[in-house]
DNA sequence: CCCTTTTCACCTAGGTGGTAAGAT
DNA sequence: ATCTTACCACCTAGGTGAAAAGGG
């Protein structure tokens, strides 16, 4: 994924379909990102692969992205696919513009994973001792006590929530694409990059 | 205001600054429109004025527009000006696309007034016997019982809310502008109509 | 040298009133 | 005759990767 100072959307967007919620209970849905390890990577063009190259910067505080519809009833969340298309990735440690979200310090080459959470919110980032998680898993949200709106929610943490992560959502965070095939895949599939397409439609 | 089948934004946007709320309580903010009378109007070009011309269609059920940030804490509402810029006016009696909102039946010439409400929501339209209100007033919201999210809120009505209306927010709903000076005012002030401006900037 | 930031042309997405055609 | 709809050119607003410029 491209990461910028102003914040860049993920593509494709992280989307989930929820089931098993209490239709009448209120839920807050949120997402954060966990480094798969504490290494820094470098792309080796000759072998077309990522090579470990030193340690990553010390654990960034790790921010949390609340789904804008939070809080909402379980019935509302389950009605249709929940899309985190407003989420943006940034490498700016300061600037916390509204929905702009997490990424680690300087190096643009850490492996990340979308993690969806629930509950009061809070510093949902796992303590460094938990890293790296062997296999990212996806967990699902639970009902919460009612007074939970954004800010207020951030007090409660690590209680009454389930976390889910998906291995297939791993990605490399970069400030510029390293692999030309990734670039072409994005150009071919992201509507906003249509201006860079040439010729043959949709072989993806 | 122009009113279309697909829904048209108001311009200028209805905005309010709130004070006196309980910072920690949850509030739902909503808005609806009340005909100033039950007459139908026709624009007389020769006198440049609106003339009453028969009765309006029977009271349309009158829909309600919930501010998208609802519910939120009083502190959140008071932090900055609350803008209803997502609100749209429509003359389509059926089609209730998300945020699209009220307007009466056929005639595009009724006088309306933005009315902001609070509480469970519900059929906030006043019964016909209350029409026309002599002078539209603006009322302010009150704290509500917690489980209030959109749909669920619509059960509760006429309880625990205050209504405010402003005389200066009266307008004529039309399907096409009748008064050329209104057209020019909109073109001069609405950024999206910049394409129709010619020459001199901002004499408004 | 490698990585990041800035700027840009080119898109998507959607809000304007004008205009002509349609509806009653 | 009057009101409404559908379509249009022209905007705002913002999401793309490319390319050039900047920084350690």
If you had to describe this structure to a student in words, what would you say it looks like?
- 2 copies of one chain form a homodimer.
- By secondary structure, chain A is mainly β.
- Chain A has one domain: Transcription factor, T-box (Immunoglobulin-like), CATH 2.60.40.
- Chain A is built from 3 helices and 15 strands.
- In chain A, strands 7-4-13-14 form a 4-stranded antiparallel β-sheet, with no helix packed on it.
- In chain A, β5 and β6 form a beta hairpin.
- The first copy, chain A, is globular, with a radius of gyration of 18 Å.
- About 30% of the residues of chain A have low confidence.
- Chain A binds a DNA duplex (24 and 24 nucleotides) through β1 and α3.
Summarize the structure.
The structure is a homodimer of 204-residue chains. With 204 residues, the first copy, chain A, is mainly beta.
How far is the first residue's CA from the last residue's CA of chain A?
A: 18 Å
Residue fraction in strands of chain A: 15-25%
Write the H/E string of chain A, N to C: EEEEEEEEHEEEEEHEEH
Outline the biggest β-sheet of chain A.
4 strands, antiparallel
Ordered list of secondary-structure elements with their pairings:
2 copies of one chain form a homodimer.
Chain A: E1 8-9, E2 15-16, E3 26-27, E4 29-33, E5 39-44, E6 49-55, E7 65-66, E8 72-73, H1 74-79, E9 82-83, E10 88-89, E11 100-101, E12 111-112, E13 114-118, H2 150-153, E14 164-165, E15 171-172, H3 180-189
Parallel strand pairs in A: 10-11
Antiparallel strand pairs in A: 1-10, 2-9, 3-8, 4-7, 4-13, 5-6, 12-15, 13-14
The structure holds a DNA duplex (24 and 24 nucleotides).
């Amino acid at each position: 994924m491209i990461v910028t100072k102003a914040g860049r959307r993920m593509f494709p967007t992280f989307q989930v379909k929820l089931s098993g919620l209490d239709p009448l209970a209120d839920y807050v849905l949120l997402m954060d990102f966990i480094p798969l390890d504490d290494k820094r990577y470098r792309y080796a063009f000759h072998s077309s692969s990522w090579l470990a190259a030193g340690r990553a910067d010390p654990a960034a505080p790790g921010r949390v992205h609340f789904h804008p519809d939070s809080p909402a009833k379980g019935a509302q969340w389950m009605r249709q696919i929940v899309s985190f298309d407003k989420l943006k990735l940034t490498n700016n440690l300061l600037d916390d513009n509204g929905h702009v979200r997490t990424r680690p310090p300087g190096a643009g080459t850490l492996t990340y994973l979308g993690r969806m959470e629930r509950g009061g919110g809070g510093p949902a980032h796992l303590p460094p001792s938990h890293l790296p998680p062997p296999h990212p898993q996806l967990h699902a949200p639970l009902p919460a006590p009612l007074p939970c709106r954004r800010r207020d929610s951030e007090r409660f943490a690590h209680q009454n929530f389930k976390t889910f992560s998906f291995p297939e959502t791993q990605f490399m965070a970069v400030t510029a694409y390293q692999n030309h095939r990734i670039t072409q895949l994005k150009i071919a599939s992201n509507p906003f990059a249509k201006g860079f397409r040439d010729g043959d439609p949709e072989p993806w």
